[in-house]
């Protein structure tokens, strides 16, 4: 093994746990990432009354983030491969936080132009957030051995649920007590502080000042790509034909389409779920903000549990294919339970069913672990970008489709069927299309 000059000499014989701190930072950053996406779902009822928006217009406003987020995925993945995760991610956090804060500023504009300016800000938030999840995938691939990767990816991915648990009540309170614009000032300010912290504490495995040689060897022996970031710093050119090979591979396409279906569930909970509680179930905005956190708690528990189960199966000798697919299939089956809400009236029963559905969604949300297992080493960022492009197309289609369904039917019944059907389609992708889960080797041009 080559000399690692940055490894702490005091810890040569003792395995440090620096990778867990890196995972903690991923969890914190991704929590804020999802909270900033969800700001509109909490403030939308107040904005809808003030601006006179109908469900379809609100659906398009919800989708603004995803249009730019999807457009930025492949460029964002290329930037990560080209310039390294630390620098690109720091710029990403700072920019999305700035445009989150700016949404509060444009809230002071006249009503006639406010909606358009707000739409543009949401677009820019989406574009700035584009490198975040491919960056998460790169850091997990670099910092964690294969047998720990499922849990690590599940933990950072479960932050989407924790974001609702932590921030939905806060944002509901701010909207109720200080108006919807205050939400954007507070959330944007938090992100700008976090961007500065990220630059100070994040490093790649081979240059981290506190990692021991024992931990570095443990990561590398277990399949961690410890030199991944150093290759990025070397500015390796984008391999020609890499994108074409990714899209032509059956396994990768099955994973990509499956992620679209799973992310449809995510965007229902991120966008229309609080509106569903207010308009379909008669809750106040303040109550809906707190109630929305209950399914999110279940989703968080399910998200962590799915990764733990998957890695446990790997350690017990099961194939990576079986270990990743089993929680995905079981979790998606549980997610279809949300359709039962169409047949019950009790608020507490609706919340219980949605909690079960969100728990299942968490268990099955192992797409980023699968991506860390399968992405070609040379283009890990690009592959993550393509994966997230497919997944977040659901951020465009889901809010708009649900907006039309609600407007035409006057209820959310068809919307819940639409979301549940996507969970079933995700199962089909993983069982019938993906096949064996393994790292894709690119053919040289």
From TrEMBL:
<feature type="transmembrane region" description="Helical">
    <location>
        <begin position="94"/>
        <end position="120"/>
    </location>
</feature>
<feature type="domain" description="Major facilitator superfamily (MFS) profile">
    <location>
        <begin position="22"/>
        <end position="438"/>
    </location>
</feature>
<feature type="transmembrane region" description="Helical">
    <location>
        <begin position="382"/>
        <end position="406"/>
    </location>
</feature>
<feature type="transmembrane region" description="Helical">
    <location>
        <begin position="18"/>
        <end position="35"/>
    </location>
</feature>
<dbReference type="InterPro" id="IPR036259">
    <property type="entry name" value="MFS_trans_sf"/>
</dbReference>
<dbReference type="InterPro" id="IPR011701">
    <property type="entry name" value="MFS"/>
</dbReference>
<feature type="transmembrane region" description="Helical">
    <location>
        <begin position="412"/>
        <end position="433"/>
    </location>
</feature>
<keyword id="KW-1003">Cell membrane</keyword>
<feature type="transmembrane region" description="Helical">
    <location>
        <begin position="350"/>
        <end position="370"/>
    </location>
</feature>
<feature type="transmembrane region" description="Helical">
    <location>
        <begin position="56"/>
        <end position="74"/>
    </location>
</feature>
<dbReference type="Pfam" id="PF07690">
    <property type="entry name" value="MFS_1"/>
</dbReference>
<feature type="transmembrane region" description="Helical">
    <location>
        <begin position="182"/>
        <end position="202"/>
    </location>
</feature>
<feature type="transmembrane region" description="Helical">
    <location>
        <begin position="253"/>
        <end position="278"/>
    </location>
</feature>
<dbReference type="InterPro" id="IPR020846">
    <property type="entry name" value="MFS_dom"/>
</dbReference>
<feature type="transmembrane region" description="Helical">
    <location>
        <begin position="290"/>
        <end position="314"/>
    </location>
</feature>
<dbReference type="InterPro" id="IPR050382">
    <property type="entry name" value="MFS_Na/Anion_cotransporter"/>
</dbReference>
<feature type="transmembrane region" description="Helical">
    <location>
        <begin position="326"/>
        <end position="344"/>
    </location>
</feature>
<keyword id="KW-0472">Membrane</keyword>
<protein>
    <submittedName>
        <fullName>MFS transporter</fullName>
    </submittedName>
</protein>
<keyword id="KW-1133">Transmembrane helix</keyword>
<dbReference type="InterPro" id="IPR000849">
    <property type="entry name" value="Sugar_P_transporter"/>
</dbReference>
<keyword id="KW-0812">Transmembrane</keyword>
């Amino acid at each position: 093994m080559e000399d690692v000059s940055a490894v702490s000499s005091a810890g040569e014989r003792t395995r440090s746990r620096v990778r867990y701190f890196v995972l903690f930072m991923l969890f914190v950053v991704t929590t804020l990432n999802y909270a900033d996406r969800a700001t509109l779902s909490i403030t939308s009822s107040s904005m809808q009354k003030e601006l006179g928006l109908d469900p379809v217009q609100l659906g398009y406003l919800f989708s603004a983030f995803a249009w730019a987020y999807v457009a930025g995925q492949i460029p964002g993945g290329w930037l990560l491969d080209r310039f390294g995760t630390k620098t690109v991610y720091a710029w990403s956090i700072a920019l999305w936080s700035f445009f989150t804060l700016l949404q509060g500023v444009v809230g002071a504009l006249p009503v006639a132009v406010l909606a358009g300016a707000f739409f543009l800000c949401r677009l820019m938030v989406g574009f700035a957030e584009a490198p975040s999840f491919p960056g998460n995938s790169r850091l997990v691939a670099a910092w964690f051995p294969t047998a720990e990767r499922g849990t690590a990816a599940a933990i950072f991915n479960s932050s989407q649920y924790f974001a609702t648990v932590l921030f939905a009540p806060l944002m509901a309170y701010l909207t109720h007590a200080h108006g919807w614009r205050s939400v954007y000032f507070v959330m944007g300010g938090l992100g700008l502080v976090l961007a500065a912290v990220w630059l100070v504490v994040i490093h790649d495995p081979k240059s981290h000042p506190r990692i021991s040689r024992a931990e570095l060897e443990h990561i590398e022996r277990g399949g961690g790509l410890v030199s991944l970031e150093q290759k990025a710093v070397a500015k390796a050119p984008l391999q020609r034909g890499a994108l074409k090979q990714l899209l032509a591979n059956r396994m990768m396409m099955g994973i990509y389409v499956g992620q679209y279906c799973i992310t449809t569930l995510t965007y229902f909970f991120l966008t229309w779920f609080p509106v569903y509680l207010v308009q379909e179930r008669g809750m106040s905005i303040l109550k809906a903000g707190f109630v929305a956190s209950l399914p999110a708690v279940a989703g968080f528990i399910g998200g962590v549990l799915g990764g733990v189960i998957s890695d446990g199966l790997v350690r017990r000798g099961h194939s990576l294919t079986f270990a990743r697919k089993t929680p995905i299939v079981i979790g998606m089956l549980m997610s279809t339970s949300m359709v039962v809400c169409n047949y019950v009236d009790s608020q507490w029963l609706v919340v219980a069913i949605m909690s079960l559905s969100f728990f299942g969604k968490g268990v099955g949300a192992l797409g980023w672990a699968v991506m860390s297992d399968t992405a070609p080493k040379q283009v890990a960022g690009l592959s993550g970008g393509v994966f997230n492009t497919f997944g977040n197309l659901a951020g465009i289609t889901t809010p708009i489709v649900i907006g039309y369904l609600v407007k035409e039917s006057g209820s959310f019944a068809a919307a819940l069927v639409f979301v549940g059907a996507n969970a079933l389609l995700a199962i089909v992708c993983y069982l019938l299309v993906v096949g064996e889960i393994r790292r894709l080797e690119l053919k040289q041009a």
